Amino acid sequence: MENLTQAIQGVPLNHYILLSIIVFAIGVVGVLIRRNAIVIFMSVELMLNAVNLLLIAFSVHHNDPSGQVFVFFIMALAAAEVAIGLAIIVMIYRNINSTDVNILNKLKW
Hints:
The protein is an all-alpha fold and 109 residues long. It has a single domain, classed as Helix Hairpins. It is built from four helices and no strands. It starts with a helix and ends in a 13-residue tail after the last helix.
């Protein structure tokens, strides 16, 4: 555990922030541009992982383990989201034979 902490502290905090911004931006672009429901869910997962990376980096930088505890809660939330989201996608695919979100106009009034 000590070696991991030293390795994380060896990289400047700015690099973690920059990497998180890039990963989060890729996730946002994926949510806004793509129309496939599976790709949208993967983009949301990318955004959650970018936040997790920042929480871990700041937690190690400030020697405060509370950020790492938040990461465990976010990972549990992400696992539940994936399970429910994939079940919804499978049911939509069974009904309309597509995962394109533009076709999903049956839920409109």
